[in-house]
Amino acid sequence: MERSEFVDRLDSRLRIADYADLDASANGLQIGSRHGEIDHVAFAVDGVQQTFELAIDAGADALVVHHGISWGGFDRVTGRTYDRIAPLVENDLALYVAHLPLDGHQELGNAAGVADVLGLEDRTPFGELGPEYVGQRGTARETYTPAELRERLEAELDGNRDVQFLEFGPDEIEEVAILTGSGTDYLDEAVAAGADALITGEGKQKVYHEAREAGIHVALAGHYATETFGVRALQELAAEWGLETTYLDVPTGL
């Protein structure tokens, strides 16, 4: 497949342009040329030296990640920034990034993937950001107890970590709001939406008291662990397009 076609397909499917003014990340093709062929694509959560090297070793022509290396641009391409970019340029490895567009996608996104493993129904967008959304909410087919929800998350999410559970909500959990990564700033929106629990990756100190006062559960399931779903979904999509794919699992434990 032509690189330009691969990039254009992802840009369109993920509605990259709609997030241009909302996201600090430079989404889309971040490093590399649109010219040339792509036969093999690697996928990872983080665009860092380790995943670049693994993608090169795997023989990939492109690497698709959730977290890229440009957050508002570069002042200088030196030091660690140069060390990250150099392997991409030297090995003609294109870097494609989908940050908030992949968080908010209602079918392929990270929150949608968490909702899938929890068996949520009647899903609607959650986590308003301007005219877009960066999460999802839904209703459990059968209610969870706090212990059951925690166990389900620990069993289904990548990353090999315990889920920290702030148990301040009802005994039965039916309505669940999900905003992966760092989403505790959306606690009030979850409460307003009638959620019994908010699932996110990592928390801030203040969320403990906010959740306790609001009477809502908060599951802190890991930033990495909650954000593997989107790139895995894109891997499946690329395979459907006839491309060879490789998933690079580099958990941080955070």
UniProtKB/TrEMBL annotation:
Alphabetical GO CC annotations of the entry are:
cytoplasm
Q: Which residues bind a divalent metal cation?
A: 66-67, 103, 223, 227
What keywords sit in the KW lines?
Answer: Metal-binding
User: Which Pfam families does its entry note?
Assistant: DUF34_NIF3 (PF01784)
MF terms in GO: metal ion binding
Which InterPro entries does the record match to this protein?
DUF34/NIF3, DUF34/NIF3_sf
Against SUPFAM superfamilies, the record matches this protein to:
NIF3 (NGG1p interacting factor 3)-like (SSF102705)
User: So which domain of life are we looking at?
Assistant: Archaea
Among NCBIfam families, the record links this protein to: YbgI_SA1388 (TIGR00486)
Concerning its family, UniProt says: Belongs to the GTP cyclohydrolase I type 2/NIF3 family.
Q: Which PANTHER family match?
A: GTP CYCLOHYDROLASE 1 TYPE 2 HOMOLOG, NGG1 INTERACTING FACTOR 3
Full protein name? Nif3-like dinuclear metal center hexameric protein
User: From what organism does this protein derive?
Assistant: Natronoglomus mannanivorans
